[in-house]
Amino acid sequence: MAVGERAVGRFRELVDDDPREFRIHGAVYTDPEVFVAEMARIFERSWVYVGHDSELPAAGDYKTVVVGTQPLILTRHEDGEIYCLYNRCRHRGAVVCRQERGHSNFFRCRYHNWVYANNGDLIGMSQSTGYPDDFDRSGYGLVRAPALAAYRGLLFVRLAEQGPSLAEHLAPARRYIDWWLGRSPVEEVELVLPPHRYEYPGNWKLQVENGYDGYHGNYVHLSWQRVLQLSRESTVEEIQRYRQSGAARGLANGHGLLERPGSLNPNASWTARMMQRYPEYAEAMRGRFSEEQLVAISARRNIFIFPNLYLFDTHIRVIMPKAADRTEVQLYVYALKGVPEVINEGRFRGHERFYGPAGFGAPDDIEVFTEVQTGVHATGHGWNLLNRGQHRERIEEGEWVGHTTDEAPQRSLYRHWRRMMAEA
Amino acid sequence: MGTAATLGAEEAERFLFAEARLLDERRFDEWEALFTDDGVYLVPIDPAKEPSRSISIIYDDRRRLGERVFRQMKTPVLDQNPPSRTIRFVSNVEVAPDAADGIATVRCHQLIAEMRPGGPGQAGLNAPRWFAARCEYRLRRTDGGLKIAAKKVVFLNSDLPHYNLSFIP
Fold first, then answer.
1. A226: Cβ–Cβ under 8 A, 6 or more apart, which residues?
2. What is B4-155's CATH number, 3.50.50.60, 3.40.50.150, 1.10.1200.10, 3.10.450.50?
3. To the nearest whole angstrom, how far is the Cα of B33 from the nearest Cα of chain A?
4. pLDDT at residue A6 in the model
5. Of the candidates A227, A351, A364, which has its C-beta nearest B55's C-beta?
6. Residue A94 vs residues A71, A98, A103, A115, A349: alpha-carbon distances, Å
7. How does DSSP classify residue B84?
8. Which of A37, A268, B108, B143 has a CA-to-CA distance to A258 between 20 and 30 Å?
9. B56/A364 touch (CB, cutoff 8 Å), yes or no
10. Residues A202, A331: one domain?
11. In this predicted structure, what is the pLDDT of residue A201?
12. 3-state secondary structure of A321
């Protein structure tokens, strides 16, 4: 946990927030000391996404996660509430749950048979005469994480006792989360398990930076564009023109997004196309939302919530740092509730086509992450540029708004990163 | 009539060895031609799930399979540049005649050794990887010889994270 004063001072120097030439030092990707500090100062202090309500539908359902370096269990107790417990027996420290997911009303430590209810209460101790009669079990339950909160089904934990509320953390991105949910006329999603999982020998922030990067598509995904041209869905020229439209937005608190224009023209947005094709969907959507809301909802967005969550049109993406040069990513595809099944099946197949470890797009992205991870070991010039569009971005309602190919969201990421890494 | 019953283990093995060779030699268009027009290629995450209502690593109908091969052979991919070298071991071949005429289910195990060569120090390259899998084929006898009506590859670690699987398992 403890990160030296001197190191903290050095972290500040790794982000150069120059008004003309915003730069980050390559050590943010390679330095193990930076990584250790990120776990302690970001992942074990910030609100971190840990799962979705629909993953724990019934009392007794649980899932285990790691936040920073800490093993946790999320459970749904018979009172209907979700609890987040440290996965550590109070006796001698063994985990009390080894599975990734399952269903159980209690957790038993296999070392000496202490038993806990799934809200954490200690309910059984083997050979308990070895403890005095006044041993107060209520003081030895599994410890609950300091803060667990949900926003519209998205579950977050904060491992620091003190800090902003979840509402404060999400505030700059809240309207985008609401619009993201709005493609469901009941504004709910349901995860489809199991997720796509991939890992790569590179830093976790490379995945963050790329998810809302509107600049790389014509180069990294030219292969994908050719596939779409082959199938006569679009021409490379049309795709490249489309990729000039929209905006890249850097938000406060490290959030950011890439956005394509909203439209009720079926040729210009997926939502409008589905509404045209499936009248029952159109009716449900028009019954729920105003015309103005529908335009906002129909804008396709890749929304990043600092530090580990992306909301995409097909999936919820969770970024899990493993080491400075190792990252796991999980893609939880979701069904939109209240829409014809054929719409969701089309979304699932569309997702598989591009994403996952054998998709037609994502492996090309992952390939460039490994290229950056290799390249930044060269320190002849140790800095990466994130200054694209600095001269033309504008500030609107507290957002840095750039051309769709600009690096406004990446700058927001590193401004907040520096704040958490180098300030108290 | 009765053609399925005539598919013996030896013929099935010869077919699977030839298929493995086409993939190892990156003759993807010839490999694609082994599939029937309604052929399906599936690499599930959870083989117990119905693929149409869940997410798979690969779930290709013949059209998408064609896109996969086109992408590898005709477009500027990064994920297979440099390309994977693979060596496939096929074993434990068993033939189970199906109820339907002219079609047979063939099960086998495969072990795929894979690596992508590159310069010194390149993350992700120069690292051999091993993939153990249970495979299930539905082979159909046609005028053009044996064809693959369905191929399913279930990795031992199908539900764990993978780096790049673009080499066509």
1. A236, B70, B71, B74, B75, B76
2. 3.10.450.50
3. 18
4. 73
5. A351
6. 11, 10, 20, 12, 41
7. P
8. A37
9. no
10. yes
11. 98
12. strand
3-state helix, strand, coil in chain B (%, to 5): 25, 40, 35
Indicate if A170 and A145 belong to the same structural domain.
no
Which residues of chain A have a CB within 8 Å of the CB of B72? Answer: none
**Is residue A22 in some structural domain?**
no
| Judgement on whether residues A138 and A173 belong to the same structural domain of the protein | no
The pLDDT value recorded for residue B5 is 52
Tell me whether A236 touches chain B (CB under 8 Å).
no
- B4 has a pLDDT exceeding 60: no
For testing the chain A interface, which of B164, B167, B168 should be mutated: the one with the most A CBs within 10 Å? B164
Average per-residue pLDDT for chain B? 94
Task: Name the residue range of residue A171's domain.
Answer: 166-261+299-422
| Overall number of domains in chain A | 2
Q: What is the pLDDT of residue B1?
A: 42
Q: Which amino acid is at A386?
A: L
**Total CB pairs under 8 A between chain A and B:** 122
Domain end, chosen from A151, A181, A201, is at A151
Assess if residue A278 is contained within a domain. no
- pLDDT confidence tier of residue A380, bands split at 50, 70 and 90: confident
In this prediction, residue B6 has a pLDDT band, given cuts at 50, 70 and 90, of confident
> Strands B35-44 and B145-155: what pairing?
parallel
pLDDT, average across residues A308-326: 98
Dihedral sign for Cα atoms in the order A172, A175, A180, A181? positive
- A3 pLDDT more than 80: no
- Cα separation, A137 vs A105, in Å, equals 18
The residue extents of the domains of chain B are 4-155
Residue range A191-208: average pLDDT? 98
Write out the residues of chain B at the interface with chain A, using a CB-CB cutoff of 8 A.
43, 45-46, 49, 52-59, 63-64, 67-68, 70-71, 74-79, 121-125, 159-166, 169
Report pLDDT for B99: 65
CATH number where A95 lies: 2.102.10.10
Do B159 and A194 make contact, defined as CB atoms within 8 angstroms?
A: yes
- How many angstroms separate the CA of residue A364 from the nearest CA in chain B? 5
Rounded Cα gap, residues B74 and B82, in angstroms: 15
pTM: 0.96
Cβ contact A370–B122 (<8 Å): yes
User: What integer is the mean pLDDT of A82-104?
Assistant: 98
